[in-house]
Write a structure and sequence with these properties.
The complex is a heterodimer of chains A (590) and B (169). With 590 residues, chain A is an alpha/beta fold. Chain A is built from 24 helices and 18 strands. Chain A has 5 domains: 99 residues, Glutaredoxin; 211 residues, 3-Layer(aba) Sandwich (Rossmann fold); 84 residues, Ubiquitin-like (UB roll), CATH 3.10.20.600; 90 residues, de novo design (two linked rop proteins), CATH 1.20.1440.230; 56 residues, Alpha-Beta Plaits, CATH 3.30.70. In chain A, a hairpin with a 7-residue loop joins β16 and β17. Chain B folds into 2 domains: 60 residues, no CATH class; 84 residues, Glutaredoxin (3-Layer(aba) Sandwich), CATH 3.40.30. Classes of the chains: A alpha/beta (590), B alpha+beta (169).
């Protein structure tokens, strides 16, 4: 038994390894070798800053270097005193507030992420020590495939990748098929910008996904599985590779697992940078080595999927729920969450928010709690404007809906969607028309080009919205925009096209006044659309310090020292450097 | 089909040996096409028409199919890349925090557009999709070096680091 555990958190393996070595030397030096265990883990919060966390206190230290580590060992581990100045923002904190530092973690409900950051993801033994592979053992020795499917079905688990289709139902379709060859696939092609839940699970707890896939294989009668991972996630691929090798070595993958006669093995397939491959039929085509273009459904993959065989495709987070459902039972799982959405959901909280990182909360938690209680609110005293969920397929949630319990159906009801779990917070400086344009640019670029409504329609949407942000829009354009949105939604082949207009529709619904301001007043209320803003110097405030003139990259500012300066609007490139430099707040954005 | 005008394709003996080994290992199964192309890109750095032809012949797949796959996926490149590749993350979080400005500045400093390479073959700009480092937003990559929490005012200094490094080569 160790008195304290020190977790070295971050994302760069080589750097962390060094720190762990240094820390171990220090622990040795202060004769704490039998009391303190040093572990290298992936980041608890999913961000990439290097930090040390000391348990059981849960104190998180930043600014880690040799000297600060020595202080942590000497003061905290040896003398039991928290090293205050190494905490985040120490200067403005009281004792109670230091305790609340850990609230970001404590106010969550960690089920899927329970191991992430708490175990060494590259060690199968640590996973096994946390009840790992017990669920697989239970399934293979005590349950029939039908019982496994029934358990998952009873749990009410729904797909965490976006659509929210009941997982048990999917398994049941595939289970009933008499086909001798079936496949299990894991969708780890986390393409929504701003979403990194799956990456964190794969990097922090890869064995949970492997175990779940083996369980799914047993349930539907498949002996082979594929994990399709984005090429943008090299560390996740490396850890998965290692985890698969360890599982094979322990006989948890391969032939005759647990002496049950059940064979199952896994292969990793790398994506190659195509967003549409997150769509299930496109993903399967891509595993087959072809252009990742989607197919019409039906036939659904559970009937005719990979290589034409029945296939179950679930996303990473969905799989990560499975082992615990098996171990603790469907009843336990379905006691968490709301009536139609069971369990928890992991959100990647980002944007204009105090604490960026992964947040796991029971379904039905309000957005207000996630943003203000867990996320710590909006920085710099700015006002909350909207939260964006569901990435390029989702929509914006305005302040009036902050108290709606988040679940699949409520989000769809207010014009957004759960999506994979990206949750991007926007403040008053973000222009909603510009946001809609940003997502459209993404979908235009990522449309595979197979069907016309998506390929041409979204391009036209993008042009219309650009016209508006450039100040050339008319009120008729708004009607055209809306009409085209519904046309694209109704006529596109796959999920990408069907949901691409959502960001436009939801911003039109809740922030129509911003569109109108761009069209009628030719202004951008948030000051984000470059074509519509101008920088001006207030003569009364300018003291002629020449700072702005010196900083201007376009040489657009003129004026003699100690005299009022002036910005030449024709030369100005609207970069905002002058406004940032001015110490008198004499430059305004209009 | 796009011909590569700038750099002529050449193959070293080591590359040939490596490529033959890849075709030997995966070539028999058509469903490995994407895997083979990914491996080929690791070996040659990009996939010019000559390499695509090699893959088509080696796997017994039509050239049309190979070209179709190569042009579908954005990770597969038909043009050579620069010695130093500047990639600004264009994920939503980075964008909200000013990644657009950073990329504009980068284009201005290097004098090239997205997806282009400077004539000396040293620098290229290729904005990337969300890399999931949202905690560091906005993020820019130069090859494997990560620069987080930057602003457009840092761009010139960062480029200068690599200009110096290129000189010392």
């Amino acid at each position: 038994m160790f008195r304290s555990h020190v977790l070295v958190c971050g994302s760069d393996g080589a750097v962390l390894k060094n720190l762990v070595d240094n820390m171990n030397e220090l622990v040795e030096k202060y004769r704490l070798k039998n009391d303190v265990k040093v572990l290298m883990t992936y980041s608890l919060t999913g961000d990439d800053k290097i930090s040390l966390i000391v348990y059981p206190e849960g104190t998180q230290y930043f600014n880690i270097n040799l000297e600060s580590m020595e202080r942590i060992v000497k003061d905290h581990l040896l003398n039991g005193k928290i090293v205050k100045d190494l905490l985040a923002h120490p200067e403005e904190k009281t004792e109670e507030e230091i305790a609340s530092e850990t609230e970001f973690i404590n106010r969550q409900f960690r089920m899927v992420l329970k191991n992430c950051g708490n175990i060494d993801p590259e060690s199968i033994d640590e996973y096994i020590a946390q009840d790992g592979y017990q669920a697989l053992g239970k399934v293979l020795t005590q349950m029939t495939p039908e019982q496994v499917v029934a358990e998952v079905k009873a749990s009410g688990l729904r797909g965490r990748g976006g659509g929210g289709f009941p997982t048990g139902l999917k398994w049941e379709f595939a289970c009933k098929s008499k086909n001798p060859v079936k496949y299990i696939c894991c969708n780890a092609d986390e393409g929504d910008p701003g979403a990194f839940m799956d990456r964190s699970i794969l990097e922090g707890d890869p064995h949970s996904v492997i175990e779940a896939m083996a369980i799914a294989g047993y349930a539907i009668g498949a002996n082979k599985g594929y994990i399709y991972v984005r090429a943008e996630y090299p560390l996740a691929v490396k850890r998965l590779d290692k985890a698969i090798a360890q599982a094979r070595e322990y006989g948890l993958l391969g032939k005759n697992i647990f002496d049950s006669g059940f064979d199952f093995d896994l292969e990793i397939r790398l994506g190659a940078g195509a967003f549409v491959c997150g769509e299930e039929t496109a993903l399967l085509t891509s595993i087959e080595g072809k252009r990742g273009e989607p197919h019409p459904k039906p036939p659904f993959p559970a009937v005719k999927g990979l290589f034409g065989q029945p296939t179950v495709l679930n996303n990473v987070e969905t799989f990560a729920n499975i082992p615990q459902i098996i171990l603790k039972g469907a009843e336990w799982f379905s006691s968490i969450g709301t009536e139609k959405s069971k369990g928890t959901k992991v959100f990647a909280l980002g944007g204009k928010i105090e604490h960026v990182g992964l947040v796991e909360v029971p379904m039905g938690t309000t957005l207000r709690k996630v943003i203000y209680k867990i996320g710590g609110g909006i920085p710099n005293g700015k006002k909350f404007k909207a939260a964006q969920t569901g990435g390029p397929s989702g929509g914006c949630i305005p302040p009036q809906h902050l108290d709606i319990p988040i679940d699949y159906d409520n989000l769809v009801g207010i014009g957004s969607m759960m999506g994979s779990g990206g949750l991007i917070v926007m403040d008053e400086d973000n222009c909603m028309v510009d946001m809609a344009k940003f997502f459209l640019e993404f979908t235009v670029d990522e449309s595979c080009g197979m069907c016309t409504p998506c390929r041409v329609g979204n391009k036209r949407l993008y042009e219309l919205i650009t016209k508006i942000t450039d100040g050339r829009g008319t009120m008729e354009d708004l009607d055209k925009l809306e009409e085209l949105c519904y046309y694209i939604k109704d006529n596109s082949l796959c999920g990408l096209g069907q949901s691409a207009p959502n960001p436009v529709l939801s911003t039109l619904k809740y922030f129509r006044d911003e569109y109108i301001a761009h069209i009628k007043d030719k202004t951008c209320p948030a000051g984000a659309c470059k074509a519509l803003i101008n920088y001006e110097i207030i003569p009364e405030k300018c003291i002629g310090c020449t700072l702005c003139k010196a900083a201007c990259p376009a040489e657009a500012i003129s004026g003699d020292p100690l005299k009022t300066h002036k910005i030449d609007k024709d030369k100005c490139i609207k970069c905002g450097t002058c406004m940032a430099k001015c110490k008198q707040n004499a430059i305004i954005k209009k | 089909m796009k011909e590569n005008k700038g750099v002529c394709f050449t193959e070293t003996p080591e590359q040939k040996v490596q490529m033959d080994a890849v075709l030997e290992q995966y070539g028999g199964d058509e469903s490995n096409l994407l895997v083979v192309l990914q491996e080929a890109q690791k070996i040659y750095g990009y996939l010019p028409i000559e390499v695509q032809k090699k893959v088509a012949d080696g796997m017994g797949v039509s050239m049309e199919k190979v070209y179709g796959v190569v042009t579908f996926y954005s990770f597969l490149r038909t043009d050579p890349v620069g010695k130093y590749n500047f990639s600004v993350c264009m994920g939503t979080v980075c964008y909200v925090k000013g990644a657009g400005l950073i990329n504009e500045k980068l284009k201005e400093v290097l004098g090239i557009d997205d997806g282009q390479c400077t004539p000396d073959g040293l620098f290229a700009i290729a904005p990337t999709r969300c890399i999931g480092c949202c905690g560091l937003a906005p993020v820019m990559f130069v090859n494997d070096d990560v620069y987080g929490n930057i602003t457009h005012n840092d761009v010139e200094d960062i480029v200068e680091i690599y200009r110096k490094r290129a000189k010392n080569l």
